[in-house]
Structure formats: C-alpha cells, structure tokens
Write a structure and sequence with these properties.
Layout: E1 2-6, H1 7-21, E2 28-29, E3 42-47, E4 52-56, E5 62-63, H2 68-79, H3 82-88, H4 110-118, H5 125-140, E6 145-146, H6 148-160, H7 163-170, H8 178-189, E7 191-193, H9 195-206, H10 224-234, H11 240-247, E8 251-253, E9 258-263, E10 267-272, E11 275-276, H12 283-295, E12 305-309
Parallel strand pairs: 1-12
Antiparallel strand pairs: 2-11, 3-4, 3-10, 5-7, 6-7, 8-9, 9-10
Helix pairs in contact: 1-12, 2-4, 2-5, 2-10, 4-8, 5-9, 6-8
Length: about 300
C-alpha cells in the first residue's frame, strides 16, 4: 500500500500544531538549561530529499542532552556487529549491567557514560572526541556549540557526587577510563543544537545515512533501521511505550526542551520549547509532534509506504 501526501498538507499540519500549542504554558524550565525565553517554540521537519518545513523559532539553541545517544548509537553500530553490540551491553558476571548490578545514580546518564566508553578508540580521549563530534557534524550538516558553563557545572556536580567511585562501587562496567567517559559524556550533553539541526540529523537517519541537506554520506545506511529501532525502544525520557503507541515515531528528548524523531524513509522532525514536564520532556514540543503524526496518519509501524509530493 502506498500513500502520497502533499507538501502543502505537511505545512498545514505543522502550522496547525504550532497555533494549537503555542499558548500552552504547562511545565517549567529545567534548572540546567540556564536563562531561556519561555515563549520560544519551533517545529522543524526535513524530508529525506532535503525539503524543509518549519514554523516558529527553530534556530534557538538548546542542550543536546540525551539526544546525543542517537549519534553514539550510530558510531557503536558502525564499529560493531549486532552480535557484538548485544554482547557488550548484555548481562554477564564480568560486565556489571543494570540487571546484574545497581545502575549508579550520578549527575549525568550512567547509560550514556557506558555508551561513550564503548566507542573506539579507547585510551585516546582526543581521538575519540574528534570521532564523536565529527559524526554529529556529518549527520547535522553543521557544528554544534559547546555550552561551557553547563559543561563545567556538570563536571563539578559529578565531582561533588564522587561519580567515579559511585560507578566503581556499583560494578557498572565501562570500556574506557571512567574519568574520561564521564567528562566526554558531560561534554556531549552540553553541546547546544537547534531544532533545525536536529531535524537534519534525524532526516539523515531516515535517509539511510545520507545527509539530505548536502547529499554527503554520513554513515552506512545498513545500520539506519537499527538506530531507529533503538530510538523506538528508548523513546522520550520515561515515555517510550505510551509515546510509540500514540505517535508511531521513534524519538528521543533532551532536558533542555528539544524532542526529535525519525520516520524511516520519510523525514526527520524536531521541536523545541523550554517548558518541560516532570520527566523533563517538552510539553509543547511533544504535543506538537504527536499532533502532526496523528493528523497525517503517519507511523513507523504502518504497512503503508509514504511519500510527499509537491
């Protein structure tokens, strides 16, 4: 079954979502976000062919937060086979995972710290970071900006919480030096990106590793479906199952107010508003994306093949 949707209908759905939720003032600003304009709200869509649709303030930068895990997943799946990924992140007596050991509570994501520790090379912080940031630029088509204040605050919080020792005592397995992994994940979390950039990154995943904005090959398209699957399982923070059921969109979120998703073969979508709920997911942004997906009857789980036409 094939469905064709006009670009005009997509723009209309984006416009309607913006108008419907622009005055929603539910939620509050996460303290880590710093000074923000609570009225900022933007929606950006990039189709797999590079067509862009947007409404509102889509060029406001916000911390990447857990959205950085999508880029780490690309690197890990580039460097490892599915079996190797399963082995590296499975339960075993010599690998302290969340099932066999207590996940450590530290100021940054323990799972994110483990992910970046597993990215090769190990024992070469500069080489690893160059690979991490280069991969993000390849997927977004432009460079993020480091929020140095947030970065320093996160490192200070980790130091005050004795994060290295907490990880060691919990048996939480890492593949690289703990201090390096904590530092680099804090840095990744502190990169500031826009809804436009995140829509581009998600569109690159949707387009099988080809960056729609410049047609460059960011990664092997064979892993796109696995990255999308990981996003579907992960979901916006603490919303995975209800989110996927209600929207059909593999997506992730940041505490700063960004939420972004990929519809394989079709588009990347991102929305931003700094007012977040008690699980640190943007209220306006999540409602807007859900509205667009349902308005156009889109879902990654649908049997219909969808294309957008002029």
């Amino acid at each position: 079954m094939e469905r064709k949707i006009s670009i005009a209908d997509l723009q209309k759905a984006v416009d309607e979502a913006y108008e419907k939720f622009k005055d929603c003032n539910d939620g509050s600003v996460d303290p880590r976000s710093g000074s923000v304009n609570t009225s900022d709200f933007g929606i950006s869509v990039m189709l797999a062919d590079g067509t862009q649709i947007s409404r509102g303030n889509t060029d406001v930068s916000s911390p990447m937060g857990s959205l950085g895990k999508a880029s780490l997943a690309v690197l890990l799946m580039t460097q490892n086979t599915p079996d190797q990924i399963r082995e590296k992140f499975s339960c075993s007596k010599d690998k302290g995972c969340g099932c066999k050991s207590q996940k450590p509570h530290i100021p940054v994501s323990a799972k994110g710290v483990r992910m970046i520790s597993a990215v090769e090379p190990q024992g070469d912080p500069d080489g690893k970071w160059d690979l991490v940031i280069g991969n993000i630029i390849n997927m977004m088509g432009s460079a993020p900006v480091l929020d140095d204040t947030l970065y320093r605050n996160l490192l200070a919080a980790c130091s005050n919480a004795d994060a290295e020792n907490v990880i060691a005592q919990s048996g939480w397995y890492l593949y690289d030096d703990a201090a390096t992994a904590i530092d680099q994940y804090a840095k990744l979390t502190s990169l500031k990106v826009t809804a436009t950039q995140m829509a581009n990154m998600m569109a690159t995943i949707a387009a099988d590793g080809v960056n729609p904005s410049d047609k460059s090959i960011a990664f092997d398209g064979a892993i796109s479906q696995r990255v999308a699957a990981l996003m579907a399982v992960k979901g916006p923070h603490k919303m995975a199952r209800p989110w996927l059921m209600c929207t059909g969109l593999p997506a992730m979120s940041s505490f700063g107010g960004l939420i972004a998703g990929t519809l394989p073969g079709v588009f990347g979508i991102a929305a931003y508003s700094p007012l977040v709920n008690d699980t640190h997911v943007s209220v306006r942004a999540s409602k807007a994306i859900a509205y667009i997906m349902n308005k156009l009857q889109l879902s990654a789980l649908s049997s219909a093949r969808v294309s957008f036409v002029s």
